[in-house]
Structure formats: structure tokens, C-alpha cells
Write a structure and sequence with these properties.
The chain is α/β, with parallel strands linked by helices. It has nine helices and seven strands. Strands 3-2-1-4-5-7-6 form a seven-stranded mixed beta sheet, with helices on both faces. Helix 1 packs antiparallel against helix 5. It is globular and about 50 Å long.
């Protein structure tokens, strides 16, 4: 018999559904790749895989247990799955004093801004149509889980335009999935100062995209951040902000 509580059972089912682990055979997908976040689900609402989804839950549970103030945010949301899980987590535990911020252009990635970010030269991510998921589509996905409500806030537009003026006071968990140097750096510059001590910064593509890793390295070096970077899987990493 399962020893899960009702809250844990709900969140486990939510993860399985968002990742489409339950009907993965209908996609003909490899369960290993799904766990590692190495495929793009045909049906599922997130491509981050089981390990990175578990990490997100652990970070949220940690800030709640330790009373770390702030909201949750993801920059670069695709179909919204990770943010849906964030809202489901708050719902499961009856937490009403935190917001989930859903930041995306909702029209794919930007063209490289070589003048300001020469590190992105050669990037063709803006041509990948599979990354273009509309705001309406993401909102519909939230609604399918009965999780579209006033605790979910959408920031539509390029990060360089939306994040500097976003009305976010404090952040407890920031999950950055911008892929490019520019998107990662724009997210770090505008959000990291708002992350509370004890909060978490998660970088989705650190292990596979050199541009993303370079932005993280440059930002950390610029501001003398020495908190250890911890691997999640072959792709994602995170660290806990100590000051």
C-alpha cells in the first residue's frame, strides 16, 4: 500500500500527467529520455523530464519549510507545464500568499541581438516553430488542470522588455529556461537581485547550451557569486542563494 499522503499523491499524479508518463507508450517515446528530459513530448505539457520536475518540487518544498519569502517564476515556459506544477503545489498545500509568474514571449525565441550579445551569434533557435506556443494555449493548459486563477500572473513579451518593470517584489524560486545568452542574462540581471536569501535559482539548459552556461558564468563572476552549482541531470543545474 502506498505511504503517500493525499497531497503527495495529487502532486505525483500531476507530474505524471504534465510529463505524459502515463500514456507515454501512445507517443512511442523512450521512458529513459522522458526521465532525463531529452525529448519533446507530443502530448505532454513539459519537456523538462522527471529529474528536473522533482528538483522543482524539492526547491519549492524547501522554501516553504524554511519560510523563505517570495513568489515562483519561470522564464521560458513552452506549454506551461512547470508553471502548472508550481501552481498545483501551492494549491495542494493551501498556500495563498505566493504568486506564480509565467514569463514568455509566447511566440518563440528572439532573433540574436549580435550588437549587444555577440555570444548568440549563429543561434537559430528563433526559427524553431515547435517553441512557439501562444499565451491562449498556455492559459488553456492551466485551465485543463483547474489551476488558472488569480495566483497565476502572465508576463508576455521579450524578457528585456517585461522583466525590468514586472511588479515582482520577492522571489523564492526562479526557474530560468531562456536557452540563449541574451535571454539567460536578461533573466539573471532582472530577477536575481529579487531572489531572497535561501531561495533557489534553477538553470534549465546549462549542461547542453554553451550560450546559456556562459551567461551564468559571466553573471556569477561579475557579482562574485560563489554558491556551488549543483547538477540535476545532464542538462539542468541549480544553486541556493546564501546572500
Amino acid at each position: 500500500m502506498s505511504s503517500y499522503s493525499a497531497h503527495e499523491l495529487y502532486l505525483e499524479l500531476l507530474k505524471k500527467t504534465i510529463l505524459n508518463e502515463i500514456y507515454i507508450d501512445l507517443e512511442g517515446a523512450d521512458p529513459h529520455n522522458r526521465r532525463e528530459g531529452l525529448d519533446w513530448p507530443v502530448i505532454g505539457h513539459s519537456m523538462i523530464g522527471r529529474h528536473r520536475m522533482e528538483n522543482l518540487q524539492q526547491c519549492m518544498a524547501s522554501v516553504i519549510a524554511n519560510n523563505v519569502p517570495g513568489d515562483f517564476i519561470e522564464t521560458g515556459v513552452w506549454r506551461g507545464g512547470a508553471c502548472i506544477f508550481m501552481r498545483g503545489f501551492l494549491k495542494a498545500y493551501g498556500i495563498t500568499n505566493r504568486q506564480v509568474w509565467v514569463a514568455d514571449s509566447f511566440e518563440g525565441l528572439p532573433e540574436p541581438d549580435i550588437q549587444n550579445y555577440p555570444q548568440d551569434i549563429g543561434s537559430a533557435l528563433h526559427t524553431v516553430s515547435q517553441l512557439e506556443v501562444s499565451l491562449e494555449n498556455v492559459q488553456e493548459n492551466f485551465a485543463k488542470y483547474d489551476l488558472l486563477d488569480e495566483q497565476v500572473r502572465f508576463l508576455q513579451g521579450w524578457f528585456k522588455d517585461t522583466l525590468p518593470t514586472a511588479p515582482i517584489q520577492q522571489i523564492a524560486v526562479a526557474r530560468l529556461d531562456g536557452d540563449m545568452y541574451s535571454s539567460t542574462m536578461d533573466s539573471l540581471r532582472n530577477l536575481y537581485p529579487k531572489v531572497s536569501p535561501g531561495g533557489y535559482i534553477i538553470i534549465d539548459d546549462y549542461g547542453v547550451l554553451a550560450t546559456c552556461a556562459a551567461a551564468v558564468t559571466d553573471y556569477r563572476n561579475e557579482f562574485g557569486i560563489t554558491d556551488p552549482i549543483i547538477p540535476i541531470d545532464s542538462t539542468g543545474v541549480y544553486w541556493r542563494k546564501t546572500r
